[in-house]
Amino acid sequence: MRRRLHRPTTLVAAATVGVLLLGACGAGGRDDDGGGGDGGDGGGGATAPGVTEDSIKIGAHFPLTGVAAPGYNEIPTGAKAYFDYVNAQGGVHGRQIEYVVRDDGYNPTNTSSVTNELVLEEEIFAMVGGLGTPTHSAVVDFLNDEGVPDFFVSSGSLQWGDDPSAYPYTFGWQPDYEIEGKIIGQYVAENMPDAKVGLFLQDDDFGDDAEKGVRQFLDDQVVAAERYTSGNTDVGPQIASLQAAGADLVLSFNTPSYTALSQLVALKLGYEPQWFYTNVGSDADLVGSLLSRFSEGAVEGGSSSLDGVMTTEYIPGVDQPDDPWVQLWQKVWDGHGEKGKLTNYRVYGMSHAYAFVQALQAAGEDLTRDGIVEAMEEIGADLEGPQLAPFRYSSDSHLGISGMRVVEIRNGAGEDLTPVLVTDIGDAEIVEDDSGQDGDAPPENGVPEAP
Amino acid sequence: MQQLLNTALGGLTLGMVYAAFALALVLIWRSTRVVNFAQAPMAMVTTFVALVIVDAGHSYWLAFAAALASGLVLGAVIERVVVRPVEGGPEINAVILTLGLFIVLHALAAVIFGNRYRSFPAPFGVRGIEVGGTTIALTGFGIFTILAVLVTMGLLLLLFQRTDIGLRMRASAFNPEVARLLGVRVGRMLTLGWALASVVGSLAGLLIAGGSLVHPGYMDSVVVYGFVAAVLGGLDSPFGAVVGGLLLGLALSFVSGYVGSQLVALAALVILMLVLVLRPGGLFAQTAARRV
């Protein structure tokens, strides 16, 4: 048996060497043609890579296939629909936006190679909305070394924005996991002071950042913290241990598939705590469709499957069809979308595409890579958009949306439990938002102006 | 106490699935001396066949039977069409071929059935059984899983130890030349071995899918754990495969519950290495003389 296993190992090694060699060739190519063209801070004229008189080419990496694809593969379809909508209205400063999406299968190795392609072959002006913490971590250094604007990473990890001197070209977008943890922690400490809190955490930055935020307020109340490894679908032992610790409120920081799995295991164990899922894991439609068909009606189908579960909200979603932003998204999707209906993931894509169009407006007609970064640091905090709370962009922080509200899911829609609360990482206080972002409406034509 | 019980029960059910999968690997090994890494995507494909039938509004049991039948056909076709041309050459060729099949079947399934997570129904409910007021982590489907695997193991033991055809299958695997001289139709035995193994693999696929989520990659970790279980029990022994599967399921469940879920895969590899170092033939290997 042992002899049998040696040969495949050699083969894998050979393949690895091959891939490394290919990678090296790619890097070599960069030196050759990157020598003069980059830098992009020449004063006037649109000389930046990917920008011509009448077009701007931008790129993104998303998992279009693989286990992380469900839901997430809809984000770029939403973003594309919005860019097409803007193009149909004449583009930005007369330039049409060309949006190139590459599939990385949520595999960091693939992310590196598709990012190389995007930057070196496609010569994109900027990366917009690249998804995932482990995946984007693999390319963030490369993008910053090359001076490629790396806007609105689709992940709530702190590293995209807490230290702009390390990654000057990278900007976060959604609220980071730490402030979500803080806001949830404070809500529970104030409103459920007797709850025995269990934490169910994804075993990476996602769970770690959130736990840090939660423990600022709830350290005494936490009776157990369990971690699951993404990819291992057997979460029975973790949930059993939360049950054994007597947790009657479970704060879960996990992806949607694991929301479904944790609900299933809880049924199996006869465990009925109050569940409080992170925004990331609480898409009622997606989880409902996963849970819908288990036998005997043991699980309610459709969007009501998460009834009574608490979560948070930072942009309006499809459960609020009367919201003026959602009406805009619906119009955009009907006019420029692919098949299928508008979903929260598509809304997410459109929301960050909206912010990027606004950034382009703000950067002015003479578009350069450094220029758009400077513009974001100057006026980023004043950007209007679907987000319920303002961005935190400045020269000291590239973190995204500053807050969210706590909601309880009823019939697939969120019912507000708090007003929009804003804060920042660390000791920053949690206060009610007074920016008026919640309740604003998009401009008539649906295309933002520079603020 | 309840946690201990529930972790053990979870491990038991999961271990039975690994056991079923290990049984399938052992079957192919016994009948062709090849480790079939494509077993996982083959089982995945047949599970999706079942899902399509359930989606069309038919009963679970019809889908169940159809999945096993399509497993039988798929196994036979793959042996005849894909594996046959490399049989007789070095065994490593066939093993590499199964790795290639792994990727091809994955990609095909993603194209045909889509890449998203989908829920797979279970026929007996997904709530735990109540005993004296507390719920224990054993569902009706869990009991069905355990019984189904035990029955399958019994049938395979009977087939190999007590029937003429089982003897011929073993003979063709052990020494095709001699078996052929003695009048055994070796080719047919090989096809039969692959077909039977594929049925057992399909069963494992259905059992792990029931009451859970499926997507084209959902069996991938099972092929690793099933392989460890098969090695643990000795690749030659159906009984060993089941015991190996159970031990592994329990061990991994306890590691996950009491140490940390990030160590599950590592623990499986440690077990694999320990077995290979200490008892290369597995816990239940027969005579060492057969290992040349």
UniProtKB/TrEMBL annotation, chain B:
InterPro entries the UniProt entry points to: ABC_transp_permease, BCAA_transport_permease
Task: Say if the entry is tagged with keyword Transmembrane helix.
Answer: yes
UniProt KW keywords: Amino-acid transport, Cell membrane, Membrane, Transmembrane, Transmembrane helix, Transport
Where in or outside the cell it occurs: the entry states:
Cell membrane
- Residue ranges spanning the membrane: these are 6-27, 34-54, 60-82, 94-114, 134-160, 189-209, 265-285
Name the membrane topology term: Multi-pass membrane protein
An example Pfam family from this entry, by short name, is: BPD_transp_2
Q: Does the keyword Membrane apply?
A: yes
User: To which protein family does this belong?
Assistant: Belongs to the binding-protein-dependent transport system permease family. LivHM subfamily.
Q: What is this protein called?
A: Branched-chain amino acid ABC transporter permease
Organism, scientific name:
Nocardioides deserti
